[in-house]
Amino acid sequence: MKVKTILVSQPEPKVENSPYFDLEEKQKVKIDFRSFIHVEGISAKEIRHQKIDLSHYTAIILTSRNAVDHFFRVAEEMRFKVPDTLKYFCQSEAVAYYLQKYVVYRKRKIYVGKRTFAELSPLIKKYKNEKFLLPNTDKVKDAVPKILNDLGVEWKQATFYKTVVSDLSDLANVSYDVLVFFSPSGIESLFKNFPDFKQNDTRIAVFGNTTIKAVEEKGLRVDIAAPTPETPSMTMALQKYIDKANKGK
Question: Which of the four CATH numbers 1.10.150.320, 1.20.1600.10, 3.40.50.10090, 1.10.10.10 does domain 40-163 have?
């Protein structure tokens, strides 16, 4: 079956040269973007109930841009002046770069991992006498606490923001040839919004093993999967599938 319409369960890219726009133009398909989930901040009052005193910590572990935003939001709500001596351990260059929104980069002690949390751990171990705070979401990957515990550092995890299912009721009577998912939360949102969802001829594209597992647990069929050695990105996987499905159109 041919592919004419695609719904990507993420916000529309803000960059003009997104590969999704190239795919849309090259394949003459319509691609819509819609967040199936969104992030909501936890109030300072709720964070105090988690027994969090920001002045107690000498280092912050930041795993995402959301963590950066919500740490500084909470600090402001608590009227806590973030000390210049605070050390920042950023999971990736993208997170460290984003930190510049709040601090003067060259005047702060910032340590940057390559990409994964495991790659950040040697830097944390090097400064194991610090008191670490991990401001995070309500859904933390199991590997993160394990790595920190194995390092033997003093650390505390706090929920500064949570992932919430978005209202998709306006899509009730809209159908797409392909639905694209990047996380189990996206699948959860699909079924919370549409409990009676039936896949039928809809193709499902999935990024990552945990998302594939979530799709299969719901009894759905994975038609397009990434990353693979041949198609390391979702757009490449979609391109390959559409090439085959739309052949001879």
Answer: 3.40.50.10090
